[in-house]
Amino acid sequence: MLIIVAAGVFIVAAAAIFSLARSLPGIDELQNPDPELASLVYSRDGELLHKYFLKNRTYVQLDDVSKYVPLALIATEDLAFYDHWGFDVRRFMVAMGGNLVRGRERWHGASTITQQLAKNLFLTQERTVTRKIKELFTAIEIERTYTKQEILSLYLNTVYFNSGAYGIEAAAWTYFNKPAKELTLGESALLVGILKNPRAYDPSRNPDNSISRRDLILSLMVKAGFISDEEAESARQEELVLDYTPITNHGKAPYFTEYIRQTMKPLSREHDLNLYRDGLKIHTTLDSKMQRYAEEAVKEHVDWVQRQFDRAWVWPEDLKDQFIRESARYAELRHKGKSAAAALRELKNDRKWLDGYLHEKTRVQAAFVAIEPESGGILAWVGGTDLDQGEYQYQFDHVWQARRQPGSTFKPFVYTAAIDRGIPANYQILDQPLVLRSGDDVWSPQNSDDKSGGLTSLRDALTRSLNQVTVRLMHEFMSPSEVVRYAKKMGISSQLQPNLSIALGTSEVTPLELASAFGTFANNGTWVAPSAITHVKNRFGHIVEEHKPESRSSLDPATNYVMVTMLQDVIRRGTGRRIPYGYGLKMEAGGKTGTSQNYKDAWFVGFTPQVTAAVWVGFDDERIAFTSMEYGQGARAALPIWGIFMKKCYADPQVGLENRYFRIPDNVIAIPVSRRTNRPAEIYSDDVYIEYFTPKGFRKYQAMLEDY
What we know:
By secondary structure, the protein is of the alpha+beta class. It is built from 28 helices and 20 strands. It has a 5-stranded mixed beta sheet with strand order 2-1-5-13-14, covered by helices on one side. A 5-stranded antiparallel beta sheet has the order 7-6-18-17-16, sandwiched between helices.
């Protein structure tokens, strides 16, 4: 009978062990643990910009962690760590004896670091005998699979430190805004102290509890012989100074990092990657210093524009009523049965709500994007004026999502087509109104100041942004489709309407496209597609994607250089002259201002051999517009942002900008020309300037001289 009972017990026990064994992690799982890791976005100068995660965890090797962290952990959690095989029998017996003697309702455990790792990686947090047995067997297998150093590394990369931080690296950045390698003794003890009870010992919530726990751990480290009494006392005297960056902080350059997130979608599908758990390292083209200067420039100048607008703006009653009827509150009142008139009247009488609602509708918005022309790399990106860290990650991004009329910033494409046809920059066209018919429609474009003049060279017309000369030029020498073709070659991807009004920028484009297209001028006629990512590494440091620049030769270098000199004149003596005279920027630069119809959009695109940047300023709702040229034109509303940004960048030697010259192709012809007679002149004449010609343009100029 006893034999039968014993056999039954053995069978039941064997079945239980077999059942437990089947539910334990396999060898592959043990050798390849798969904790969820945050993907990190870095600037080109190594700054951490952002994290994408479900659990805020960043894996680091033990060599990249302060030496004090594992010592504090071992002294606190598992003093015999290097002596046991995953289970500390002596410690277990002492703990169980204490529990029995004291009759505790909640027994104290004796889990080793390896057992805790087994629970964190492979098991649940339930408090059952079954889970405890699984934990024991798994810990033993972990010890057989990994070295002690590897176990410490895995443990420190998986434990939770509260505030959304999983792993020591995420905790170091969350609480101290530094890598784990730079943690001091006191900071290391403080972070290890959080592990006992993450909420109770979170230093951002309970600093006093956290400091008490830190000091206890320092004493345990002294007792273990890991540090001296003097070191512990010095660490106790450290004042708790947090640089707390919780996970709700969307990081630096959130408009840009949201663009990165969108850019990563097809790449993630192609390589079967999960942006939120695979621990990718995404290295970008963004320069953290230039990004900071861009944000400062946008904020500084938009505040000024907003003040000018607020002083001048008066709400038209019909427009005010129209906005009210579009509000959610109006729809709600109508849904409740109120008549249209009653709902409108009620909301107009609610002054507090109405003032706040209309205030939001008249907030000035801006976009700024800077590109390195030679590589296409995006250097700085500001997608709007909402710079609240907690709010603006998923806001509408005006850099690449907003298409607006570019106004006169589109004119360079017209002049480029003309120069490439062989029309010289000093060719003269009458600056007078012209009447154009298209079916039943009549169009007569005027200059922005409503003034006219006589014969004007293309160079002067672009410098002064003359509408009448620009439209005459396209009307007499080329088709709208030809201008569209040049714009497309240079980087404009939006759909453009091939009509005469396109000469004045009536087809909508994005700031990113304009920056890219003007980058062709800065890059000797070669267009390079804008890029944001240089390469992506997986959690093991292997490159899974490397950017290969897309480029094409878009303009003949001679044509390109003549256009560069014309756009330099815009800055030296034209609508962009505030750059050298207002901001003291004397470097080689070209650019173009732009203002769309009725002052809805203000633009400036400027470039040097190293940086091309586009600026747009306007409103989200195109029914709102600036009220006058005094502050709402491109030279006043947009250009200063470029000027402030460039001044800050050139003043910072770490940015690395210098005054370089644009490359002059060998076949460009340069001769002194008189502004008064438009004929070759002696170099010492007062009104002489150097005119530049393509070979075709010079032949045309010679023919012009014969006709004079």
